[in-house]
Specification:
Radius of gyration: 47 Å
Membrane topology: Multi-pass membrane protein
Subcellular location: Cell membrane
Largest sheet: 6 strands, mixed
Strand content: 5-15%
Family: Belongs to the CpsC/CapA family.
Keywords: Cell membrane, Coiled coil, Membrane, Transmembrane, Transmembrane helix
Protein name: Polysaccharide biosynthesis protein
Number of strands: 10
Number of helices: 15
Shape: rod-shaped
Strand order of the largest sheet: 5-9-8-6-7-10
Distance between the termini: 45 Å
Structural class: alpha/beta
């Protein structure tokens, strides 16, 4: 697993180098969202408001919302609507209720058309008011009713007592008698008014006067999730999954990126590193098959998890690196001999570097030439899945050329074992890296200094100087 920190530059590199693939994945996600919208028909939602006059506590309002969505209310609403195949249990998923400010219960209904949604909300609201009013009337506290009836009897008894007192009072027209009768009549009037107000202010009577605040509004738009929302959600989901997949693959990558790790896997010595001009295009293998064309179209034929190639110096500076590798190779060998330049298949950077190395080995103007300097080199491609190196014939050794971060330790170990099976000693390793070449001047350049444009395959040779 790679321990590199996932940074914003990594995300930006994914967007920049995989934008075609990400765009296609997002389109596929949008199509999946569209398909999901076909499975779920459009729904429309509207609400009807019911006013609960009087003083209500929050828990009482919560109880009323539960009553509004109870099976009794929904069954009555389904029976009244008479929709085919729609029962009260099915309406439970389509009807909801919540308490709003001002003692208002909002009853929302969802249906497949605006008209049915409006009818559903209005009908459930009406059934709720009817059922809740009956509950309030039926559940009036019997003790309170008995006390109220006893109070009426006491008031009637008091009125009779007042009448008896008034009749027993001095029938004369004295001031005291007139004043006594007046006070008794005032007491009778006050008792009657108190009883009337007590009956009018009864909690059951007050709370039973629920009112539906007009018909529900006909919805003009679909209820979420709409088809467009499903398409956008599908595109975003697939896009994020693609990005996360890239990050996970890079995090779990076992490709070797450092020269010591590569040298340890091949059990040989690192001779040096060389530069290959071409930048991002250097990572692209040349293959005319339809599958390769599709990979190029999607932009997945190149590595995205490699850093942006740095700007290289001039060609002379790059050739110096190749000459130094050839010099170290001469130092490794006791005498000039023929060597195989082993390049893993699909590693375009390494292939170009091997061709350039063969050219430098054959054109090195060293004074020690005349078949006594650089070894003769032949480039061979080796499959990493089933590595097979030509048997030892005229060549007696192998030089492995590869790019950093292209192969795992197991793959490199397989190449080393294939060389050993063919009785080739791995005399050295060359690591190639892609760079961005600066504009070059064509004047004053001899033809043999130019880098070969094409690989020469298995027959690429460099003569000794």
């Amino acid at each position: 697993m790679s321990d590199d920190t996932i940074r914003l530059v990594t995300i930006g590199r994914i967007f920049r180098r995989r934008w075609r693939l990400l765009a296609i994945v997002a389109v596929v996600g949008a199509l999946v969202g569209y398909g999901a919208s076909l499975l779920f028909p459009p729904r429309y939602t509207t609400s009807a408001s019911v006013l609960l006059p009087g003083a209500w506590e929050s828990r009482e309002l919560l109880t009323q919302t539960e009553i509004a969505t109870s099976s009794v209310v929904l069954d009555r609403a389904a029976a009244t609507l008479g929709w085919t195949g729609v029962s009260g249990s099915e309406l439970r998923d389509r009807v909801s209720a919540k308490a709003a400010d001002g003692n208002i219960i909002k009853i929302s209904g969802t249906a497949d058309t605006p008209e049915r949604a409006q009818r559903l909300s209005d009908r459930v609201a009406q059934e709720f008011v009817t059922f809740a009013t009956r509950i309030v009337g039926d559940t009036t506290d019997s003790d309170a009713a008995a006390e109220l009836e006893a109070l009426r009897k006491k008031v009637a008894q008091t009125n009779r007592g007042i009448t008896d007192l008034a009749n027993a009072a001095d029938p004369g027209q004295t001031v005291e008698s007139v004043q006594a009768r007046t006070e008794l009549e005032q007491l009778r009037t006050a008792l009657q008014e108190a009883m009337e107000k007590l009956e009018e202010a009864g909690p059951a009577t007050n709370k039973a006067n629920m009112v539906v605040m007009g018909p529900a509004a006909r919805p003009t738009g679909e209820a979420p999730p709409t088809r467009m929302q499903l398409m956008v959600a599908g595109a975003l989901l697939f896009f994020l999954l693609a990005v996360i997949g890239h990050l996970t693959a890079a995090r779990m990558s076992r490709r070797l990126r450092t020269e010591p790790e590569i040298a340890a896997a091949l059990r040989s010595t690192l001779l040096g590193t060389v530069d290959v001009p071409g930048g991002r295009l250097a990572h692209r293998p040349e293959d005319g098959r339809p599958r390769a064309w599709i990979r190029r179209l999607l932009g997945v034929d190149t590595r995205w998890d490699i850093p942006t190639p740095r700007t290289s110096g001039d060609e002379a500076g790059r050739r110096i690196r190749y000459r130094r590798v050839c010099a170290r190779l001469r130092e490794q060998l006791p005498a000039p001999r023929r060597l195989l330049v082993v390049v893993p298949d699909g590693d375009e950077i390494a292939r170009r570097a091997a061709v350039q190395l063969v050219a430098e080995a054959g054109s090195d103007p060293s004074p020690s030439s005349s078949n006594g300097g650089d070894p003769m080199l032949r480039v061979v491609g080796v499959s990493v899945s089933r590595p097979l190196v030509p048997d030892r014939d005229t060549e007696s050794g192998a030089l492995v050329v590869l790019s950093a971060g292209s192969r795992t330790a197991g793959e490199l170990t397989g190449i080393a074992e294939a060389c050993a099976d063919a009785r080739h000693e791995v005399v050295g390793i060359v690591v190639a890296g892609a760079v961005r070449a600066r504009p070059t001047r064509s004047a004053g350049r001899s033809p043999h200094h130019a880098t070969p444009a094409l690989a020469v395959g298995d027959d690429a040779r460099g003569g000794s100087v």
